[in-house]
Every structure is written in structure tokens, then in C-alpha cells.
Design brief:
heterodimer, A: 13 helices, 0% strand, flat, B: three-stranded antiparallel β-sheet
Chain lengths: 308, 308
Amino acid sequence: MSAATSVAAGTVRRSLHRQRIDVAGYLFAAVLLLSLLFSLALLAVLVVDQLGRGIPVIAERGVGFLTAPLSSSPARAGVVQGLIGSALLALIVALTAFPIGILTAVYLEEYAPATRLSRFIDINIRNLAGVPSVVYGLFGLAVFVTLLQSFGTSNGANVITGGLTLAVLILPLVIITSAEAIRAVPSTLREAGFGIGASRWQVVRQLILPSATPGILTGTVLALSRALGETAPLILIGAVLGSFSAGRNLADLFGGPFTALPVIVYDWARKPQEEFRALTSAAIIVLLLVTVIANGFAILLRNRYDRR
Amino acid sequence: MTTLTGASRRLEGSPRRHRNEGLVRAFLLGASIVSVAISAGIVLSLIFEAISFVSSIQLSQLVADGWFPRRGMFSLGTVIAGTLIITLIAMALAAPVGLASAVFLSEYASTRVRRVVKPVLEILAGVPSVVLGFFALTWISPHVVQALFSEAKAFSLLAAGLGVGILTIPLVASISEDAMRAVPLSLREASYGLGARRVTTSLRVVVPAAISGIVAALILAISRAIGETMVVAVAAGASGGSLFTLDPIGPGQTLTGAMASLATGSDNVTGNSSAFLSLYFLGFVLFAMTLGLNVLGDIFVRRTRQQY
């Protein structure tokens, strides 16, 4: 009896402790890891490739590359109009898309009654987020450029129409990320506010928005960095390809022809001369520094905020 | 009785406060109507201009040997074929790599690895598409495409498609990883309890449970690939137009590429010529395709959320 039990127990124990190497399992894990490393390697190759070609230009030209205007001669061409243009575009985007986007998010999360209209607005925003950026360019061309031309400006394609087009492009992104940040605010905060007799707006302004600020900030910075890298909408509404003289005064800056960093990258990338390849990479390094720093800042901010 | 009405009046608060709250609500609603107005603007401008394009040409011009807008040849089949080739190539790269990365991040990676890798993937997602285009032209084309096919051209649909694929890897990875991580732990535990290995658990339990989210990730990635403009504009060539082609190692034209080259061609098309109006026609076709895919993807995303 006891002998039989111990034999059976031995079999069970042996089968439980069977030390067989799970070859298929390890192979599967290796393939998965390789795919992940492949995507990371792509990013590394891209960055190294641009650095290798662009660093010599930046080393040779130094700050001169940043402060020189566009030129058809590769030895003299710089990106100053692109820097100015991108900065102005970012300013216009921040002044228009951020307030409208955050207010919309507040409405949808805190005010909107569960009506058909609210649901329609919500679905509408999610669909807008998936519209290709080039279509926003067409929208900017059909609406903003035409509108500005009808106001008597000879050239509707200026930094204002460009900025508004980009603002429209990132508006859904700003709304969606801000709404997520507001939704993450614990409802106890809200209830406490109402409990001491605060009005809805007081609760929103003094409790919910401060608490959601890190999340909203992350979303808006990510959206801004997306806007800074967009090219297609700007070339559709008529950002300048090729060289032009930089605006000297404010009226020229806002009303005259404009370009932006990614537009310069596109323009130079199409030029056949070998020297422009190096210049393109140098401009890409500047563009990546701007967008990746903005992105990285937002991601760090969110990770710190998430851990709390 | 009098005390009761007094109390209820006190609870109602001052009329001024009510008025202010109403104003705030109206203001916020106004902000959220902006996004609806934008959608309406996009749809209306696309439809009207597309109709005026179709009525400005003979319908037979839509069926030509190629897409040469300045010569009145508007072969829709050519640009749609190019778009489908790009999308197919992009998905052939992004679907396996993105899904494998997602399985690894969700099922195999430790928290620490995930915390390092996810931000890097997000940075890859944040690389401006024009940069990816330049990378496709100057690195993927000579080092991958022309290394594999000696007869390949410098500009090719294959190089552009791979570039678009790199852009969509992070999208596939992050949406499908979210879906897999949403699968309840109890399912995995049940599987391990039955003695299943990790590979079996991943492939037979987690992936099927998350299939809606995975399908959504692929659909949204396809929509993104169809709408991607700058990679194609830089790396696919054929900026003047293209004959109908199914050859991936030669240059070709896509919906978005055709739009970019119409907006930036040597003789910028403007005014009311049918070449200019064809921009809106292409935009309308692109918008309809991506909207359909996004709505479909959204249905799948919502199905995942409802399941658990």
C-alpha cells in the first residue's frame, strides 16, 4: 500500500520536475525581442545617418547655419527663416488651439449632458483626429487662405493662415488628451467641491483644472511638437519653397511669405545637388532637436506624473 | 411652509450666480462647436470643389493611361493603385514588427524594460514624416531596396512604403499593446494553471482575447498609411505624374503624393483650372477612404472596451 503510494508520488514528482528545455518558447521570445530591437535599431540608424551627414555642416558653419537666410548656394544657405516661421506658427497654434481645445475638453467632461448633441460632438472629434494632415491643408487653402484674400491681402498664404491650419490640425489631439487628463481627476475632489457649496465653474477652475494640469500640459506639448513637424498642410496652403528675403518688420513677418523648418527640409531633400543632402541632414538635426526635445519633455513629465 | 420655501430659495443660490454659470456653460459649448464647424467646413469644401472638378472635365478623363493633371489625364486608378501598393508594403513591415513588439511588451517585458522602451517607441512615433521620407530616399533606397533589387530606381514605391511602414510601427504596437494589457490577468492565470506555456498563453489566450483591439490597430494603421504624404512625396518620385504602374521598385504616384506635387510643382497650379481643382477631388477620395477605415477601427476599439 505505502509502496504503491510512494511509486505514484514519485511519478507525479518526476513529471512535475521534468527539466525539458522549452525550445519553441525561447525561440518565440527571441523573435519577439528581435522585432522590438529592430524598431529601436531603425530609430538609431536614422539618427546616426543624419548625424553623420549633418554634423560636418554644423561643425563647419556653427551658429552661422542657424542665422543665415535661405539661399540657392549650398555654402551660404541657412535656416533662419525656418526657425522664425516655426516659432511664429507655434505661437499662433498655442494661442488658438490650446484654449479652444482645453475649453472643449472641460465642456465634454464636466458640463455636457448625455444628449445626442454631446455624443455627436464626441464622435466628431474622434473622427477629426484620424483625418490625414494633407486634407487639413486643403481645408486651410479653401477656408483661411480664401478668407484672408477676400480681406484684401494679396497673399493669403502667410504665417497666420499656416498657424490656423496647424491649430485646426492638432485641435482634436489637444481635446482628446485634455479630456483624458480631466477624466483622471478623482471624483472625490469634485464631490468635495460640490459638498461645500461651490458652483460647477468654481469646482472646474479651482479643483479640477489645477489637478489635471500636468496631464493637459503633456498633451498640449505633444500636440505642439506634432504641429512643428508637419509639412504637408503647409505646402498645400502655399508655404514658400525656395529662397526669399526674410521679413524685416512685424507686418512682413505676419503678412509676407513664410516657410518653416520641415518645409525647408522638404525643399532641400528634393534638390539634386549632393551638397544639399548634407544641408538637409543638418536641417533635420535642428528639426529633430526641436521636436524630440519637446516630445521627450512631455513624456518625462507624464511618467513623473503617472508614478504619483 | 414659509421656512421651507426660504430654505429652497437659499439652496438655489443667488440669481447672479445662476446667470454666470449659464454664461460659462454657453461659452464652453461655443468652444466645442468649433470642432463641429471645422468638420462641416472640411466636408463642405471638399464636396463642393470635388463636384466642380468633376463637372469641369469629361468623365472619360478619369480613365486614362496615367495621372498627368497638367495634360488633362486624371486616371484615378493610377493613384489608387500606387496608394494600395504603398499601404501593402507598409503593413507588411508594420504589422508583424508592431504586433510582435506589442506581445513582447505586454507579455514578456519586465516593468523596467517597458518603462524604457515605450518612450523610445513614442519618440519614433514623433519623428516628423518628412524626415522619414528623406531617410527612405537616402538610406532605405540605396542600402535596402537597391541592395535587394539591382534594377531598382533611386525613387521607388518600395522605399517609400518601407518608410511609411516605419512610421506606423509605433501606432500598431501601442494600440495592440493596450488591447493585450486590458486582457484580465485571471485569463492568463487560468491558462498557466492548466499547464500552458507562456508562448501558448500569449498566442492562444491573450491574442484571441484582444483580437478586436489588434484588428483596430491594423485598421487605423492602414488608414494612417493611406494618408501619409511626405514620405511618399520625397521618396516615391514621379512628381510630374505617372503612368499606371504596379511595379514597386520603380517610381509611382499615390493620392497623397499627387496632392503634394500639385501643390509644389514647378508651375504652381492655382486658380480654377481643372488641375487645381483635382487637388480637392483627390482630397475628397482620400478623406472618404480614411474616414471609412477610422469609423470601422473605432467600432472594433469600442468592442474591446465592452468585453471586460
